[in-house]
Design goal:
With 70 residues, this protein is an all-alpha fold. The protein contains 4 helices and no strands. The radius of gyration is 11 Å and the shape is globular.
Length: 70
């Protein structure tokens, strides 16, 4: 799990497009149980949190990420 940050990960690294095929980045924002970590814990801005959650949901539908982990 990520530590709470004061600045958005995507704004600091100047990442504009969040791609659902980039699994390594998406896994940083998913809990061990497969849940999307809320923005208060990750420190991501609202704009990027919406794009991130949409990318995670698309990756799940394309079977790149699991829906739940047991």
């Amino acid at each position: 799990m990520l530590k709470q940050q004061n600045h958005c990960f995507f704004c600091v690294n100047n990442i504009q497009a969040i791609d659902y095929k980039n699994i390594n980045v998406l896994k940083k924002f998913i809990s061990p149980y497969g849940e999307i970590i809320p923005r208060k814990k990750t420190g991501i801005c609202t704009k990027h949190q919406k794009k991130l959650s949409q990318a995670i949901k698309r990756a799940r539908i394309m079977a790149l990420l699991p829906f739940v982990k047991k």
